[in-house]
Amino acid sequence: MSEKTRQNEKEDVLTRERTEEPKKFKVILLNDDYTSMEFVVWVLMTIFRHSQASATRIMLHIHNQGVGIAGVYSREVAETRIAQVHEVAREAGHPLQCTMEPE
Ligand code: TYC
Q: Separation of 56 CA from ligand 1 center, angstroms?
């Protein structure tokens, strides 16, 4: 392989590394039979910054479908929000669960 070809391949790799989009993650709330609707709306407004109307819509979607997306974030922000949900749910005595998956 010529020196020129090697150099081009190296530049291709570096260019790809620089231009790749950072991965995004959906934070997903799970339905359960015990957490109150009011608490889920409060979580969606307080931790995920939804309006009351949006939070209510998402909560009802989760209640009816079993799961719903609270938001889409970088890995670090998604992990922090999940930890915050589990902390406030534990404090309030609710079994509310949430998880994340790649977008
Ligand atoms: N199913 C719950 C109830 O009837 C409400 C609820 C909605 C719970 C969304 C969790 O992520 C959830 N009280």
A: 11
Residuewise pLDDT in 10s, the chain (103 residues): 444 444 444 444 445 556 788 899 999 999 999 999 999 999 999 999 999 999 999 999 999 999 999 999 999 999 999 999 999 999 999 999 999 999 9
Q: How many CB atoms lie within 10 A of CB 3?
A: 7
Question: What's the whole-model pTM score?
Answer: 0.84
Tell me if 55 CB under 6 Å of ligand 1. no
Expressed in angstroms and rounded, the spacing between residue 9 Cα and the centre of ligand 1 is 53
Taking the C-alpha atoms of residue 23 and residue 10, their distance in angstroms, rounded to an integer, is: 23
Regarding the beta carbon of 99 and ligand 1, being less than 6 Å apart is answered no
